[in-house]
Amino acid sequence: MMRTRPLKVALLGCGVVGSEVARIMTTHADDLAARIGAPVELAGVAVRRTGKARDGIDPALVTTDATALVKRGDIDVVVEVIGGIEPARTLITTAFEHGASVVSANKALLAQDGAALHAAAETHGKDLYYEAAVAGAIPLIRPLRESLAGDKVNRVLGIVNGTTNFILDKMDSTGAGYQEALDEATALGYAEADPTADVEGFDAAAKAAILAGIAFHTRVRLDDVYREGMTEVTAADFRSAKEMGCTIKLLAICERSKDGTSVTARVHPAMIPLSHPLASVRGAYNAVFVESDAAGQLMFYGPGAGGSPTASAVLGDLVAVCRNRLSGATGPGESAYADLTVSPMGDVVTRYHISLDVADKPGVLAQVATVFAEHGVSIDTVRQQGKDGEASLVVVTHRASDASLSGTVEALRKLDTVRGVASIMRVEGE
Amino acid sequence: MMRTRPLKVALLGCGVVGSEVARIMTTHADDLAARIGAPVELAGVAVRRTGKARDGIDPALVTTDATALVKRGDIDVVVEVIGGIEPARTLITTAFEHGASVVSANKALLAQDGAALHAAAETHGKDLYYEAAVAGAIPLIRPLRESLAGDKVNRVLGIVNGTTNFILDKMDSTGAGYQEALDEATALGYAEADPTADVEGFDAAAKAAILAGIAFHTRVRLDDVYREGMTEVTAADFRSAKEMGCTIKLLAICERSKDGTSVTARVHPAMIPLSHPLASVRGAYNAVFVESDAAGQLMFYGPGAGGSPTASAVLGDLVAVCRNRLSGATGPGESAYADLTVSPMGDVVTRYHISLDVADKPGVLAQVATVFAEHGVSIDTVRQQGKDGEASLVVVTHRASDASLSGTVEALRKLDTVRGVASIMRVEGE
């Protein structure tokens, strides 16, 4: 049973993702209509500058007045692929006020203002979908909030930034240093001219906030996410990782505490065993590992960025939102009922790999071991390497809180015999 | 906003999966209520034999009269985890007639009668969900029919049977033969006393039919699926695979033809390159690789069977179906609008690895090569091994149709110089 009046879609942004959304809406119009139960029509495209030729888009649809477009009142779904906080935020809330549902790919906005946007959607009885905001084409939001709705998620461990995974994979496979690998990523178009958002973990932190919120049915703000970039990772760290049977990945980690009453969310480079499914995620691919009570260990893998993959996620949401409008229903909104405490980084419990430059004389190991013991951090293995008066100690700990480890490191730095802390790396996924 | 009248759930079957569904419904009652927006109540449990103590289930709820239970008229959702065709089929259609929606984990039934069951659900305006029918806990049905609803799926390549993956993984890692690996799988509980459904590919074929139907929006019947078991795979095949940089997996493969007008579905053992993400799927785990126009390559990985994982999938569906009932909507039903031709195995195009036992004399290779050429099958590489009057030829072909390959093999068998065809293995995932 096909309804003939089309659903009207307003597209905000017509860059790499937006143009691909428009293209697929045209080329796959019949499929979309069949899957939705009504045709969808591109009713307007808001851009920053007109005048540029846009393949397959009727120039009459193109406007620079995004606000007027979302206020038209006859728009069924607004697709927001502008990115950034403003004007995206105001446009989305305006869209809800004027009767539209919204599909967004905007991780920064969702991470910062997800709660307010969800509230606006609910007030107006509209949908807010954003599968494309996390890990591009990989279905992740929908599996977490729908497929696992009857389960209890305990941990989400993900490679959610393709740029940094490309760089780390390159360092791992070639022995290159960070700068050299970054230069190659830039040359190949995997890193932007200013790579800060990727390499400093801001992008991954936004995704971690979104994932943690959905996984734990708890509001997790961007400020709640501990963030550490991967610019300090060295070729020496990769050599250490290999000795441990590990590689290094920039991970977004969302965890429920053992007692179940609190959660943490963090982004930082970490060693993971080569046997872990995330270790073999190569190049710019993304993958997210989910651990839950009943399902056990699941992994979702795919391209985490790019015009087509992101458009695929946007269009999947578009179909769902259109179906909802036809049936007069809305999909699942924000679920924050669990309202768990979001604990700071100091409460995170994991293992650590610490490399120390130390004086090459007797008694150093005893001194260092005493410091660990005093801070309640139990040592798993320690390895001494000495050569030409220089010496290093590599300590791998048992599980300890981040606060205890920080205290340990601070005390180690004060020892005369410790010349420097060469690196501290968390060990995950064991 | 919590509705206080509970939604009533009837559970058909209380074995490994059913008892876990009941357990989680009790222990996670508050979470389920919060996520659904109303409490869910276990209103009845149909079993084959009463009298057995069932942990945490009120004996007053247990009945052997499943028909009476689904006919009660006050049941919101029937959860069918009996398996098999009858009485499951009749109970499900009766449930629809009496106003209930249905969540099922029954792959055999869905593969055989999915169309009729979907039609019954639609007639009565009810939901039929069955995430648990394919690959246990791995979200797959929902991603395929919802997340990828705006995309065009071209291929689904999956390890969807844990028993056979355990056996093949064991053969790969230890060099064991099929029987030895099967015995170990049986001893460890990974294989049933009668392993036919698994090792002969019947289980995987049912899943392939379901996956192909959803992926291609086309009805694919169980009879449409080509099926070849893995009982003939030998340790020698694994050695051959290793020489090719491959391993062997039992794959369910659903493909759209190059011209897009037809599809095929098949289950058979195949060599895949070690670099393919499916190659590293170990033990009894399942994984499904999906290739689509816009999203590119996605993979979904997790436990494909077991009480808890299957219960996780069932409960995810239960939450979705309950939400739909509260909002007065139904989820996506069968989508078979594309109505593509389902082509027979002969039309499948892939590469082949063929081992021949041949006479050790001059001219054999020329004869063999002529037969391949006559049938239009182009040879990629050929390797001759001779020793003590015995000789073998290992031929790897370029892409050719299964019909051409079959014709080739038939003609090869007629050659005096060919003593036997030791193995034929398809090569996939390149």
UniProtKB/TrEMBL annotation, chains A, B:
Its EC number is 1.1.1.3. Pathway: Amino-acid biosynthesis; L-threonine biosynthesis; L-threonine from L-aspartate: step 3/5; Amino-acid biosynthesis; L-methionine biosynthesis via de novo pathway; L-homoserine from L-aspartate: step 3/3. Keywords: Amino-acid biosynthesis, Methionine biosynthesis, NADP, Oxidoreductase, Sodium, Threonine biosynthesis. GO terms for molecular function: homoserine dehydrogenase activity. The keyword Oxidoreductase applies. It comes from the Bacteria. NCBIfam families: PRK06349.1. InterPro entries: ACT-like_dom_sf (IPR045865), ACT_dom (IPR002912), Asp/hSer_DH_NAD-bd (IPR005106), HDH (IPR016204), HDH_cat (IPR001342), HDH_CS (IPR019811), NAD(P)-bd_dom_sf (IPR036291). It catalyses: L-homoserine + NADP(+) = L-aspartate 4-semialdehyde + NADPH + H(+); L-homoserine + NAD(+) = L-aspartate 4-semialdehyde + NADH + H(+). CDD domains: ACT_HSDH-Hom. It is an enzyme of class 1 (oxidoreductase). Residues 353-426 form the ACT domain. Belongs to the homoserine dehydrogenase family. PANTHER family: HOMOSERINE DEHYDROGENASE (PTHR43331). Catalyzes the conversion of L-aspartate-beta-semialdehyde (L-Asa) to L-homoserine (L-Hse), the third step in the biosynthesis of threonine and methionine from aspartate. Its cofactor is a metal cation. This is Homoserine dehydrogenase. The keyword NADP applies.
